[in-house]
Amino acid sequence: MDLKTRKVDNVIVVYLHGKLDVHVSADVEKEINRIIEQEPQCNLLLNLGQVEYMSSSGLRIFVSTMRVLKETKRKLLEFLIQAKRAGKSVAGYGAPGKGNTLLNYCGIRTDFVDYTVDRNPYKQGKFLPGTHIPIYHPGRIKATKPDYVLILPWNFKDEIMRQIAYIQDWGGRFVVPIPEVRLYP
Question: Looking at the structure, do residues 55 and 130 belong to the same domain, yes or no?
Answer without folding.
Answer: no
